[in-house]
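Field: sequence (string)
Field: structure_tokens (string)

Example rows 1 and 2, in order.
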Amino acid sequence: MTTINRILIIFAVFSMPVSLLAEQPTVHMEPLHLQGARILQEQTASAAVRDYLQSWNILSSALEQNRDDMLDPDFVGTALDEFTNTIHEQIALGIHTRYLDHAHDIRIIFYSPEGLSIQLIDTVSYDEQILDNDKVLTTQNVRTRYVILLTPAEVRWRVRIMQVYQQ
């Protein structure tokens, strides 16, 4: 391998993370005004929202790569089952999905008295692309509202339920 090839490989490896960084979505979170037996500490709320937003990144990567194993650290229960099924359906159809996340408007609406769940409502804006290999078949701009149930794990909050919220 020539010196130039080595330099190009090193440059590609170190520049890749910069090129893979997508524009971060804007995040708006309403102030906490929960009433109940247990007070939601700001640190707990921040950790839950941080973990929830990270789960969007993981979900996006898992759906784009059709890898259900990527979901395990961030999803459990119904959410894990539904997204695993979606990935298996995509594989069967020979497609994958890319999400380009634009904005989240998050409102924490419930914190259980035992501290075992946090419920959010998130109005999300994103572009959804359906791809066959690298060919974009469709692109759709989506703005929808989700209800999310987070449950604590050893070191983070995990998404247990993530459903479109119908009023």
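Row 2 begins here:
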Amino acid sequence: MTWCEDNGLEGEQQLKCLLWNLVSFTRPLDETGLAARTSGPVALGPALWAEFFCYNNSLDSPWPEQIRIKFSQHTDGGVSVLEEISDQNLDGLKPDQGGDVYLRFQDSPQPVNLLRGLDANLYQPVNADYLSRLKEILAALESRLVVHSPLVWKDLKSGLQIAVVKAFRFIRIGQNEITILRLDPALFQIVPFSDREKNTATPMNIEGWAQQLPEATAVLNAGQYYPDRLHMGLFQKKGNNWGTTIHPNWKALLLSGGPADDPIYPPSFILDMEKNPDDTAPGRYDYIVQSFMLLDEDGRPRVRQTDRLASRTVIAQDHAGRLLVVAVSGACTLYELALWLKEAELDIRRAMCLDGGFESQLFVRTGSEDLVHYGSWVVNERRQFHSENLKLPLPAVLAVMPRPSAD
């Protein structure tokens, strides 16, 4: 049984659900990460393989415009294609849609299109066969336990590491590269900065902020903000709040700059206000940044399932107490990003999400060439846009800086 069946979906709804899940396993075939994506070869049985492709030449929808599945047999004599299915609008195989084909390769070099001249009474059985093939591929893909390429950590400084991985699932548009910083709160802290505090005349993108903060090893975008460029929720720095009042629906607080020798509270951590509504920890910390929970310590995504895609920035905490900054180059949904963090080899305990889309920005001083990341994807009901050159100014950022005691 698939999730789509378990939740009572039938017919075209179940078909779209299966296709949505299958597309989550695809990776880009070209540099843009947009036009064509593939699952790569998927083993279905002895010598039997499938490969799933999807195509999207516009950003009118987060859904691909077409999918294609190729079934092949691998023997000592070589590779032979057995069947090929193409679904033009992800709405099932229909004889009257020119882009829909179901090719069956026999002994002759010309394949047979099972949809050509198809009797109306046979339309449903052919789609039932198509549905069973989708379930077969999805079952094989979901049996894969690896969701990203091997983690290789590089030391930037003592207590601060960086890794760049390729995600094998959930990045639906764009490149599937994810950058991760991991810091020891005993040596590093995350300090908020607002352009209201800095009183800057010219709005700055992440590179401009990095120039303003030369002592920071890394600078990243903060959370969401209102049209007047004021941070949504708390944005406190040593008693001054450069944000707004506490957001009633957002339950994550990033607490940083706490005492080094507190027997209960670590120097920095993510506080889940839903599970700890009466915690007195915030009063012990110099820096407080509010946003919304993405993944909690029960392994529960704390966001809704939607098909809204965007580049993303996340701050997480692992079970060892270290903080992680996660920047997603391509576009994914928030819910599926929570699933990726849960399944990744990062030992995540809690995660909170910051602003996404074009505001998702990261600057890292690596000791050689600086790493600069600008989010370039937003695909939802209000905006469908991609730009590699758009570098929006940010009203506030978070800086990864050494703790004073670690100098």
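free_text_note (row 2): Residues 123-142 form the longest helix (20 residues).
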